[in-house]
Design goal:
The chain is mostly helical. The chain is built from 22 helices and four strands. 37% of the residues are buried.
Length: 525
C-alpha cells in the first residue's frame, strides 16, 4: 500500500555536507512538526522536555556540521565546570586572582578552538607574507610540512557551522559569572540546553545567559500572543529569506560579483543595492525565524534587527543591525578595553579596535578586517560630529514651539539617512567580494563605466529581480505603525488562516526556489 524508499529516507536523516539542514528546508519543517508534538506532550515533565530539546538540538547541529557536534559538547562541558569553579572561588573568598585565571582559561579554550578552525590558514599566510616582505628566509627544517620557504601551504580545515556564535555565547556565561551578574547553574543539562538550543545555535541571535537561563525551568506556557507572533515571524522570515534574498542572489547579485568587469557600472551599483537588501533579508529572516520558533516553544529572545537602513547615522545603524553581536562586542570587548572612561583619544582607539576585531570575527580575510576598520573609523567620526553638535546645534536640531527642548531637524536626518545608507552599502562590497581585487572592479565599473542609458533594458531583463528589490525596500522602510498593524492582523487571525498563509508561502517558495539549497550567509561565521 505504501511504497517507502527507506534508503532515500535514511539519506535525508544523515548529515549531507552539500545541503545542511536550515529552517527553510523541507526536512526541517517535517522534523519540526514531529518535534513539536513530542515537545508539547512533555510539557510538564521539565527534565525530560529539556533533555529531549537538547538531544534534538545536537541532532540539528549534526545535520549542519556532521560529527563536529563534539566541539559543541567540549565547549559546553569545559565552560560549565570552569564557571562552577569560578563561583566556588568567589563565594569561598579565595580571591579574584584565581577566578580571573579561570576566566582566562575559558578564553583560551573557546577562542583557541575558534582561532584554529577559522584563522589557521589566514594567520599562516599572513605571517609568511610578512616574513617574505621583510626578506626573511626560513630554513626548511623550521618550516616543516606546511611552510616551504615562506610560502604557506593551506591546510584543509573544515569550518563548523556557527562556531563563532556558540563560543561567544558560552564565553558570555563564564564572564558574567566572574562579574557576579549571574550565579553558576547547578545542572549540566540546563547549561547544555542553553548553549545548544537549536533556534539560535548556528546563526544567532547571541542570547545572554542572564536573559535565557531564568526561562529554562519556567512552566511551559505559550500564550495566544506568543503563538500568533511566532507564526508571523516565521512567515516574515521565510519570505525574506526564501523569496527575496535567495531569488535576487541567485538570479542577479552572484552574477555581478563573480565577474563585475563584464557588467556596466549601473548594473554593479544595482547589484550593490541588491546585496545590501539580500544580506539584510537573509540574516534578519533567519533571526525572525529563530525568534518565532523560540516563541512557539515558550521562550523569548531579544530583537536582533530593528530596520537598520532607516538609521540616520552609523552609530544608530549599529544599534539596529545584529543587535546581539553589537551589544556583545560593547559589553565584553569595548568596555573591557576601557570604553569611554579614559578620554576621547582612548575611546576612539577602543572603538576602532572593537570594530577591527568585529570585522575579523566575520571572516578570516583582509576584506573583513578593512570592512570592520572602516566602520570603526566612521563610528569615531560620528562621535566627533556629535561632540561638535553643541557648537553646530542649529545644523542638527531645531527648537519647537510645543516642545521647548530641541527636536531633530528632519532635513538633516533625511540627509544623514541617505549618506549612512550609501556608506553602509559601499562597505558591503568589501564584505561580499571574494577578494579585494573584485571589490576594486565593482567600484571601478561604478565610477568609470556607469552607462545609465541601459536602465530600461535592465528593468526588462531583470523584471522579477527589480520588483522583489523594490518590494523588499518598501517593506523595510514601511512606517513602524503599519508593520505593527500587519503583525497584529496575522497574530489575531484564526488558526486556519495562519495555516493557509504558511501553505501559500511554501507554495511560492517551491515555485521560485533554485535547484540548490541556499545556506544562510551567516552560516560561514
Amino acid at each position: 500500500m505504501f511504497d517507502i524508499d527507506f534508503t532515500r529516507l535514511i539519506e535525508q536523516l544523515i548529515y549531507q555536507p552539500q545541503s545542511p539542514m536550515i529552517f527553510s528546508s523541507g526536512i526541517f519543517l517535517f522534523l519540526f512538526l514531529g518535534f513539536t508534538l513530542i515537545y508539547n506532550l512533555l510539557g510538564k515533565a521539565d527534565t525530560l522536555r529539556i533533555l529531549f530539546v537538547t538531544l534534538f538540538s545536537y541532532y540539528f547541529y549534526y545535520k549542519s556540521s556532521g560529527f563536529f557536534f563534539g566541539l559543541l559538547a567540549l565547549v559546553t562541558i569545559s565552560d560549565y565546570f570552569i564557571a562552577e569553579a569560578i563561583g566556588k572561588t568567589l563565594s569561598g573568598g579565595s580571591g579574584r586572582l584565581l577566578a580571573k585565571t579561570l576566566v582566562v582559561l575559558s578564553l583560551i579554550l573557546d577562542l583557541g578552538l575558534l582561532v584554529f578552525f577559522k584563522y589557521t590558514n589566514f594567520l599562516g599566510e599572513s605571517i609568511c607574507t610578512l616574513l617574505e616582505n621583510c626578506g626573511v628566509h626560513v630554513p626548511s627544517s623550521i618550516t616543516g610540512s606546511y611552510l616551504q620557504g615562506v610560502v604557506w601551504q593551506p591546510r584543509d580545515i573544515f569550518l563548523p557551522v556557527g562556531i563563532s556564535f556558540f563560543t561567544f555565547q558560552s564565553l558570555s556565561y563564564t564572564i558574567d559569572v566572574y562579574r557576579g551578574n549571574i550565579k553558576p547553574l547547578d545542572r549540566l543539562l540546563d547549561y547544555a540546553f542553553y548553549v545548544s538550543f537549536f533556534p539560535q545555535l548556528v546563526a544567532g541571535p547571541i542570547v545572554r545567559a542572564r536573559d535565557f537561563i531564568p526561562q529554562i525551568r519556567r512552566p511551559l506556557l505559550v500564550t495566544d500572543q506568543m503563538f500568533g507572533t511566532g507564526v508571523f515571524l516565521l512567515i516574515a522570515g521565510l519570505f525574506k529569506k526564501a523569496v527575496i534574498s535567495d531569488y535576487i542572489s541567485v538570479n542577479f547579485v552572484e552574477r555581478i560579483f563573480d565577474q563585475p568587469d563584464l557588467y556596466s557600472g549601473l548594473e554593479n551599483l544595482l547589484a550593490v543595492y541588491g546585496y545590501t537588501l539580500q544580506i539584510y533579508c537573509d540574516f534578519s529572516g533567519y533571526s525572525d525565524m529563530a525568534i518565532g520558533i523560540a516563541l512557539l516553544l515558550g521562550f523569548q529572545f531579544p530583537k536582533n534587527f530593528d530596520s537598520p537602513y532607516k538609521s540616520s547615522s552609523i552609530t544608530e545603524f549599529w544599534r539596529r543591525w545584529h543587535i546581539s553581536l553589537s551589544s556583545w562586542l560593547k559589553d565584553y570587548l569595548y568596555i573591557s578595553l576601557g570604553g569611554n572612561r579614559h578620554g576621547k583619544i582612548r575611546q576612539y582607539f577602543n572603538l576602532l579596535m572593537t570594530m577591527l576585531l568585529g570585522g575579523l570575527w566575520h571572516g578570516a580575510s583582509l576584506n573583513f578586517i578593512l570592512w570592520g576598520g572602516f566602520h570603526g573609523l566612521l563610528l569615531c567620526l560620528d562621535k566627533i560630529w556629535h561632540s561638535l553638535c553643541g557648537v553646530l546645534s542649529p545644523l542638527a536640531y531645531l527648537p519647537s514651539k510645543r516642545n521647548p527642548n530641541p527636536t531633530k531637524n528632519w532635513f538633516v536626518m533625511l540627509v544623514g539617512g541617505v549618506v549612512t545608507f550609501h556608506l553602509v552599502a559601499a562597505l558591503w562590497v568589501l564584505f561580499r567580494a571574494s577578494s579585494f581585487g573584485i571589490a576594486e572592479q565593482v567600484f571601478h565599473q561604478i565610477f568609470y563605466k556607469f552607462e545609465p542609458q541601459i536602465f530600461l533594458q535592465w528593468c526588462t531583463s531583470y523584471k522579477t529581480v527589480g520588483l522583489l528589490m523594490l518590494l523588499g525596500y518598501v517593506l523595510h522602510f514601511m512606517p513602524e505603525f503599519l508593520s505593527a498593524k500587519a503583525r497584529h492582523l496575522v497574530t489575531r487571525c484564526p488558526l486556519v488562516v495562519k495555516a493557509l498563509l504558511i501553505v501559500v508561502l511554501v507554495f511560492i517558495v517551491i515555485q521560485i526556489k533554485s535547484s540548490d539549497v541556499q545556506p544562510f550567509i551567516y552560516f560561514q561565521f
